[in-house]
TrEMBL record:
Catalytic reaction(s) noted: di-trans,octa-cis-undecaprenyl diphosphate + H2O = di-trans,octa-cis-undecaprenyl phosphate + phosphate + H(+)
One GO molecular-function entry: undecaprenyl-diphosphatase activity
Membrane topology according to the record: Multi-pass membrane protein
Name of the protein this chain belongs to: Undecaprenyl-diphosphatase
Amino acid sequence: MELFELIKAFILGVVEGLTEFAPISSTGHQILVDDMWLHSSEVLGSKESANTFKIVIQLGSIFAAAWIFRHRFIEMLSVKNAKSEHRLKLSHVFIGLLPAGIAGLLFDDFIDEHLFSVPTVLVGLALGAVLMIVADLYARKVKNPISVDGITHKQALIIGLTQVLALWPGFSRSGSTISAGVLTKMSHKGASDFTFIMAVPIMAAASAKSLLSNYQYITSDTIWFYIVGFIAAFIFGLLSIRLFLELIGRIKLIPFAIYRLVLVAIIAILYFGFGIGRHI
């Protein structure tokens, strides 16, 4: 492949790594950067190949989260952790995953067919931003918010139910679940930890399922495009997750919500005003 094409793969991997776990919607950024500008489908030869590329780079981000929280996953599998009353357990993660997992199986085809468009993503970005602002305003009234190890099964279920909203493209998985955690009196850091830990198994399963159905689009002619994108997503996923976890306790969610609303305005102007991306 030509160098310029590999640069495109690198840029898309960077965008995925930086946005997948931040509450700003990786879907919205992929539309802005790829569908409206770089057009990976033209490099790879089809829309199906471009969608497969998005699955591959998402796996890069998932691997980054799995690596950062590897000690947590090992800890949750230990007998000692299972007996402790004040530690995050696999049961919390399972309960948090259940609602979105069921909804995803029931409505996956409908979502793919009807909700992946620029207007629906804009709606998701805007509504998700409103939820984040509400969560931050509520958090100001909460004294002594709890950490991830203080989470109850009821809180995990509420967060899991809210995660169903993220099936709407643009809403953002982390934006919805961190907001739900904060609204159930968790700290921003605690809600973020639970969100990232919970995201690894459900996103890995969904990506693996999609990849098994579309692996034929990865050919010897395009393999380096996928490899470069995957590596970029993994490296920048590591950096962005660590930075986000350092910052979230100080800056909270409102700055991210404002950024989302600005992104909505940019995409809306490009799409409705200039017709960029109307083919999507």
